[in-house]
Amino acid sequence: MPILRAVRLHGADLTGANLVDSDLTDSDLTGSELVAANLTGASVTGASVTGAILADTDLADVTWSNTTCPDGTNSDDDGGTCANSLG
After folding, report:
1. CATH number of this structure's domain 1-71
2. Which of 8, 11, 5 is nearest to 34 (CA)?
3. What pLDDT band is residue 19 in, cutting at 50, 70 and 90?
4. What is the residue extent of each domain of the chain?
């Protein structure tokens, strides 16, 4: 599992990235492009994905705890997921 805790990937182009089982705890993914990325089993606990583009991204089994969702809401206030705020 790649450990990328608290990394600043603000606006990064991660199109098609393989981030399976990654630990992205407390990372800044604000405005990142994650189109067709694979985040299966990743932890985005405490991370910010505000404004991130997640079209066609595999989000199976992602841990969303206290995550700032793409629409600016908090995953803890939306059933423990950002899946409902992806558009």
Report:
1. 2.160.20.80
2. 11
3. very high
4. 1-71
Structure tokens at 67: 């995550």
Most confident of 5-9, 23-27, 83-87: 23-27
What digits encode the pLDDT tens for the residues 67-79?
A: 999 999 999 998 8
Residues recorded for the chain: 87
Alpha carbon distance 78, 38 (integer Å):
22
Q: How far apart are CA 12 and CA 61, in angstroms?
A: 23
pTM (2 d.p.): 0.85
**DSSP output for 8-69:** B-TT-B-TT-B-TT-B-TT-B-TT-B-TT-B-TT-B-TT-B-TT-B-TT-B-TT-B-TT-B-
